[in-house]
């Protein structure tokens, strides 16, 4: 864990000197230097004191880099094609277990000729157009602003039943990281 580098980066970003941290926490400058250079591991109580001096939550100091905020600019989004209808999929962002994407469904297109299943849970919001969502014996016609969710282990399919392109925002939760196509 690289807590020291995080402390130094936060301190510098906030224009706080080591002396100011030491004054507020009662720690020595030598000790703070060792902490920032990852040469010593402070106790939780000491980290809490440093976090308060930096005005950040203790939990933030304990996050790994990959657990912190990840920004994907719109022009940097990965765009892929999915299914037989080559649906346009814009990958918005992800964590270890959650993926968010925007899927465009041209008129008449669907996630596949037959319903399919996979691990995970999905939440959908119709942003544009009209779709038919089918899962097992259930089906529903949904329009702009409507949302639905399902456990993806039951075969399901989404079809654009409107005359214009449908756009659906989808969040997919899986317990394990997966790279394969989940639509």
TrEMBL record:
Keywords: DNA-binding. InterPro entries: Cro/C1-type_HTH, Cupin_2, Lambda_DNA-bd_dom_sf, RmlC-like_jellyroll, RmlC_Cupin_sf, TransReg_Diox_bact_type. The keyword DNA-binding applies. Residues 7-61 form the HTH cro/C1-type domain. The keyword DNA-binding applies. SMART domains: HTH_XRE (SM00530). SUPFAM superfamilies: lambda repressor-like DNA-binding domains, RmlC-like cupins. It comes from the Bacteria. GO terms for cellular component: cytosol. Pfam families: Cupin_2 (PF07883), HTH_3 (PF01381). One of its GO terms (molecular function) is DNA binding. PANTHER family: HTH-TYPE TRANSCRIPTIONAL REGULATOR, TRANSCRIPTIONAL REGULATOR. This is Cupin domain-containing protein. The lineage of its organism: Bacteria, Bacillati, Bacillota, Bacilli, Bacillales.
